Structure formats: structure tokens, C-alpha cells
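Below sits our specimen:

——
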Amino acid sequence: MQKLINFFKAKSFYHLCKIFVIFGITGSLSLYVSEYILNYIHLEKYISTLIVYLFLKLVFLIVIYQILLILIALVFGEFKYFSRFIKKFLNRFKLSK
């Protein structure tokens, strides 16, 4: 258990559980929200190629996930922890300084 706490840079076991709950809620909610929005804008009408459609859907899902992660982390009082996490994620794609 200590390896997980160190890997996620959690302060305690309770903090690690809180991090996992935030990730879980965000993952589930991002799937529902992105699917709802994509159905609303009827993306499949405009794109006939399956590969392009799936790629755009994945990109959209990642963007929604990042937004929801910050919002849910804010609700749970973990904004500072997850803002560092997202900054590290964006640095991997060279989207942030």
C-alpha cells in the first residue's frame, strides 16, 4: 500500500482513497457527458469515415475528462493536487509550459 501512496504522492491512505474516488467519478462522468454532447451535435452526420470519427470522439473525451477532473477535484477540495496532475499531463503533449 505504501508503494501506491508514494506513486500517487498521496499524504495518507485516506488521501489515496480520495484520489481514487475522484478518478473514478471523473472517468464515469466524462463518458456520459461526452456521449451526451456528441449525440446532441450529431457528429456522425458530418464525418463518414469511422477512423476519423473515433479519433475525434477520443480527443473530445480527453478534453471533457480534463475539464471534469478539475471541477470534481474542486468539489472534493483537491484542486491543487489535480492541477499539478493535469499540468504534468499537458507537458507530456507539449501543450503547456
Observations:
- The radius of gyration is 16 Å.
